[in-house]
Write a structure and sequence with these properties.
alpha/beta; 8-stranded parallel beta sheet; 5-stranded antiparallel beta sheet
Length: 527
């Protein structure tokens, strides 16, 4: 793949900065800690690093409540740390993608503070969605919209008007019909591209525009308030967002053909997702249908086929993903009734499936160690706003954000200096899951990831391209990629025979008398 099109089959590693590595000993990961561990990512064999927000923020939502997109928060480091990170990422042969949060700001952002101070009708409020309330005295929210984190999506200001926040009240939504908002983010993109970043991940890319009529959804629960066709939804996936991304694509082009965007776009159909990655819009978009799919052969094949067909129609590559900082780790999702050994077995097979599919892939920190969701965090440490907004009925996403175990036999396992109290506690049993412990074990999850990524890079059939399904028994996925590659995944209840295709490149589990065991995958080569 030429350098301008590196993104079409890249494997990108997501770093949740707060939980990756802590260099200064305050219990929270930082940019210097990330820089110190870049060797791990280079050795792993990925192509790029995507970092979650490290901008100035009150950290109500883990940095996704941005007070200032132009400078780092002291919690994570200094401006010099940012520039050092960019340089070091490039020195070790990787590329750097940063997170931009355009749907909302922090309530401490200078714009929002000015809006509150200015009062109803002031031009400062045009950057956000302020509306009068309903009811005799305006005491009711303007609409019935619900926050993703629970509760109403509107909060009343002291002067009686209400402002919109599809997430936490501390995250007021920007009004993207305002010219100043659009111009500021265009300047921001140019600023970071000029500083050497290679790409930008767009948070809530499907949510920037709202129906100006502000119609009710007619449902109490946001999770059941999604119409079958989200194009009819008043604040998700409105067609007008594509004009914004066409302008952003031109900005990336100002800095060269190798600067890229990836969209976080939660939409309900592959054809709607494909609209975000048309040739004059964004480069790639996360495939959440694959992430959410059950461990079932028919379901996975349907998702793969629908995804490839929709994206091929617009000339875009697929981007596969199994976990990220917003969802339960896939080891736990695949564990059925809590059998983590089963979950890890399936996770190993899922890795080989994902890396064999046409396109690119995203890995989430810690999956290369086989980490599970930490489901027993003490309530006192839960930091996700979902916990409070749901009335302590939904624990939120902290379980997938626990700091990484690097080395040693006791917490914090090299994440921070010994004796440091980390922002979320690491489970003591992770002593066997550290990167140090797994590096010397050829059968470990880490060794599988390293071997699979190396084999993917070396084989001419893998990366961007197409696949051809092969006949297989019920519950078995089998497909070929040319030249000379086949992947077989056994999701049935019995070991399956392997096709006569050539040598075994690698398998997620040992073969049993030449047959592929249950919940396992194999790569074959006949070149």
């Amino acid at each position: 793949m030429d350098s301008a099109n590196w993104w079409r089959d890249a494997v990108v590693y997501e770093v949740y900065v707060r939980s990756f590595a802590d260099a200064d000993g305050d219990g929270t990961g930082d940019l210097a800690g990330l820089r110190s561990r870049l060797g791990h990512l280079a050795d792993l064999g990925v192509d790029a690093v995507w970092t979650t927000p490290w901008y100035r923020s009150p950290m109500v939502d883990g940095g996704y409540d941005v007070e200032d997109h132009w400078i780092p928060d002291p919690l994570f480091g200094t401006d010099s740390d940012v520039l050092d990170l960019v340089a070091e990422v490039h020195r070790v042969g990787l590329r750097l993608l940063i997170d931009v949060v355009p749907n909302h700001t922090s309530d401490r952002h200078p714009w929002f503070r000015a809006a509150l101070a200015a009062g109803p009708g002031a031009p400062e409020r045009a950057r956000y969605h302020f509306r009068p309330g309903r009811g005799a005295d305006g005491e009711l929210p303007p609409t019935d919209w619900r926050s993703v984190f629970g509760g109403p999506a509107w909060t009343r200001a002291a002067d009686g008007e209400w402002y919109l926040h599809l997430f936490a009240p501390e995250q007021p939504d920007l009004d993207w019909d305002d010219a100043e908002v659009r111009a500021d983010f265009e300047d921001l993109l140019r600023f970071w591209f000029a500083r050497g970043v290679d790409g930008v991940r767009i948070d809530v890319a499907h949510g920037l525009l709202k129906d100006p009529a502000f119609p009710d959804l007619g449902a109490e629960d946001e999770e059941i308030a999604q119409p079958p066709d989200r194009s009819a939804h008043p604040h998700w996936d409105l067609d007008g967002v594509h004009e914004i991304y066409r302008s952003w694509r031109k900005i990336a082009g100002e800095f060269g053909p190798d600067r890229v965007f990836v969209a976080e776009a939660w939409v309900d159909r592959p054809d709607r997702l494909a609209r975000y990655v048309r040739p004059d819009e964004l480069h790639t978009a996360f495939n959440f249908d694959f992430l959410r799919c059950d461990w079932d052969a028919d379901a996975l094949r349907e998702v793969i086929d629908r995804t490839l067909a929709a994206l091929e129609a617009v000339g875009a590559p697929a981007t596969w993903v199994l976990s990220n900082h917003d969802v339960v780790r896939h080891v736990t999702r695949f564990a059925g009734s809590g059998d983590l050994a089963l979950g890890r077995r399936r996770a190993r097979a899922a890795l080989l499936l994902m890396l064999a599919l046409p396109g690119g892939a995203y890995l989430y920190q810690g999956e290369e160690l086989g980490l599970e969701e930490v489901e027993d965090l003490p309530e006192a440490v839960l930091a996700d706003p979902t916990w409070d907004r749901s009335g302590h009925t939904r624990r939120g996403r902290d379980g997938c954000r626990v700091p990484l175990p690097w080395s040693g036999t006791a917490p914090p396992f090299g994440f921070a200096p010994d004796g440091t109290s980390t922002w979320l506690p690491l489970p003591p049993h992770w002593r066997t899951m550290t990167a140090e412990a797994q590096a010397a074990d050829p059968g470990s999850m880490l060794s599988l990831y390293r071997a699979a990524l190396a084999a993917r890079r070396a084989h001419p059939a893998l990366g961007d391209g197409t696949l051809t399904w092969s006949p297989a028994s019920p519950g078995v996925l089998s497909f070929a990629r040319e030249p000379g590659f086949r992947c077989v995944v056994n999701l049935s209840t019995e070991p399956c025979e392997l096709p006569e295709y050539g040598r075994v490149v690698m398998s997620s589990a040992p073969l049993e008398d030449g047959r592929l065991p249950v919940d396992a995958a194999v790569w074959l080569d006949r070149s």
